[in-house]
Design goal:
With about 300 residues, this protein is of the alpha/beta class. Helices cover about 30% and strands about 15% of the residues. It has 9 helices and 12 strands. Strands 8-7-6-9-10-11-12 form a 7-stranded parallel beta sheet. A 5-stranded parallel beta sheet has the order 2-1-3-4-5, with helices on one face. Strand 4, helix 2 and strand 5 form a beta-alpha-beta unit. The two termini are about 30 Å apart. The model has no long low-confidence stretch (mean pLDDT about 95).
Length: about 300
């Protein structure tokens, strides 16, 4: 069987090597090379051009190369009736947890302030912070966000989550829906965005959101760049209401060289590297879904188009 590989950033050679050992019956086909579209039954994709899949008339399943699936949802020509699944990979999750922990500890231990003191050659100890009094809010407590929140809570921080729907199965309070958004923000000193990008969450981190955070709050976005209204974030940082922002994702990507985020003293940028897909841990899930599809068995992590995740 043939699995189409369509990605501008992932390495097909690494996937081909893993699949050769794991599932030799699967032939990985490079979308940029010669191939017969009618022979393709499965596709493994990431940030592909909208409409690029419509010529594959025999597709049975499309798998995302990452946890995000907004690139699939925004394709108006996505083949009708074809299911698509997101990747839930332990390596992806652990990378996101590590990044969120690093950003949280950097802010909590006042490393931003100490870096400024160093630049001015100032020896200026600050009062020691109390971990249990630092309130961290994780927006989006699904598979990845829940792991992020649990890890941060495990260090003794006062953690709460926010979700579109009520959740009672997590070991920390979760605010829910539009009624819970502002109360959630009001108790959050460090806001970490791990939300899926949907019509409801696009631009959610805006002037109203930042104003609802306590003065001196920090913002960390490891979800999607379109969650943030860039002008509103810059205004909140320049006014002093927000202390600092860490952005692993931007809109657009790559960020143009002239964008003010690059040189803003209160912004830390990284190039969408909070977590990267590792074929060695991700491929088993892709293979399992292909085999289940062929056998008529249920698929794992199927995306609900109505919900957008």
């Amino acid at each position: 069987m043939k699995l189409l590989f369509m990605s501008g950033s992932d390495r097909i050679a690494a996937w081909r090597a893993v699949l050769a050992d794991l599932a030799p019956e699967i032939e990985l086909v490079d979308a940029n090379g010669p191939h017969d579209p009618d022979e393709i039954e499965f596709a493994l994709v990431w940030q592909y051009p909208p409409g690029a899949l419509k010529r594959y008339r025999n597709l049975r399943l499309v798998s995302s190369l990452g946890a995000g699936i907004d690139h699939l949802l925004r394709d108006p020509d996505f083949p009708a009736g074809v299911p698509f699944v997101r990747l839930v990979d332990p390596t992806l999750t652990s990378g996101m947890v590590e990044y969120a922990l690093a950003a949280t500890l950097r802010y909590h231990r006042q490393m931003v302030e100490y870096a400024a003191f160093q630049a001015q050659a100032q020896w200026h100890p600050l009062p020691a912070p109390t971990t249990s009094k630092r309130r961290v809010g994780v927006a989006g407590v699904g598979e990845i966000g829940g792991a992020v929140a649990r890890a941060i809570a495990g260090l003794g921080f006062d953690v709460a989550g926010w979700s579109r729907r009520a959740k009672t199965d997590l070991p920390f309070p979760v605010f829910a829906g539009s009624n819970g958004w502002k109360p959630f923000l009001a108790r959050t000193d460090i806001l970490i965005c791990v939300l899926p990008l949907t019509d409801a969450t696009r631009g959610l981190l805006d002037a109203a959101c930042f104003a609802a955070l306590p003065p001196g709050a920090f913002v960390v976005n490891i979800a999607r760049g379109k969650h943030v209204n860039a002008a509103d974030l810059l205004a909140a940082l320049d006014s002093g209401h927000l202390a600092h922002a860490t952005l692993d994702v931007t809109d657009p990507e790559p960020l143009p060289a002239e964008h003010p985020f690059w040189r803003h003293p209160k912004v830390t940028l990284t190039p969408h590297i909070a977590s990267l897909t590792d074929p060695r841990t991700a491929a088993p899930q892709v293979v399992a879904n292909i085999r289940n599809c062929l056998a008529g068995k249920p698929l794992a992590n199927v995306v609900d188009r109505a919900n957008g995740y």
